[in-house]
Each structure stands twice: as C-alpha cells, then as structure tokens.
Input
Amino acid sequence: MRTYEGGCHCGRVRFRVTTDLARVSECNCSMCTKKGILHHLVPPERFELLSGEGDLTTYRFNTGVARHTFCRHCGIHPFYVPRSDPDKIDINVRCLDGVDLAALTLDTFDGRNWEQAIATWHHGE
Ligand SMILES: [Zn+2]
Output
C-alpha cells in the first residue's frame, strides 16, 4: 500500500488516502460517462479529508444513495460515496497526484445495468 494525496482542480479540496491501486474501474452509467471518473474504493479509515469540507457540494439523483460530492468552485469530483458501497469512499483516481494512469489496469462496471452488475461486482471482491 502507498499513501497518495489528491484533490480538485482549484486546490480547495484536498485529501489523503492509503491504498493499493490494484483495482481501478470505469463505469458506463449516465453519470460516470459524463464525469469520466476512474473509480477506486477505500474504507473510510484509510481516507482523510485535509481541506475543503465547506467547498464540497452534493448532487443526488435516482435512488439518492450515492452522494456525488464535488467542489462547488471548480466542479471537479475528487471522491464521492457510491451507491454500490455506501460504507466506502470512491476515489477518482484521476484526481490523485503522481499516478501514471496509462499504467493502470482498468476493470469495467456495467452501471447502465446496475442491478445485474452489482451482483458480480461484490462477488469479485
Ligand atoms: Zn475546486
């Protein structure tokens, strides 16, 4: 495991996370397609918000379980609470400092068919 720091574009929201980036995934749901987020789940005890709590705002839709937090100044989504694992933090790997995105192996999550996808998703953990 390694410790990474990351944040939004304007720098108000900063966080630190300790993890192994073995499992990074793309999702084809309506939201993730537009955001272009690269997902990586961590338990909350390995996530620390360093700054910007007051700069985050939340978008909810559909079931309302997912809390799509983003910086209200620059609009970037550095992390959020996902519907698939509401007890975890879903990091946007694109927002981590110093990660070679081209070196990552990406899984895909079939978020357009969420109910079927979630069954195999948790099976693979
Ligand atoms: Zn920002």
Notes: Residues 114-123 form the longest helix (10 residues). The helical segments are 30-35, 114-123. The beta strands are 2-7, 14-19, 24-27, 39-42, 47-51, 56-59, 68-71, 79-80, 89-92, 106-109.
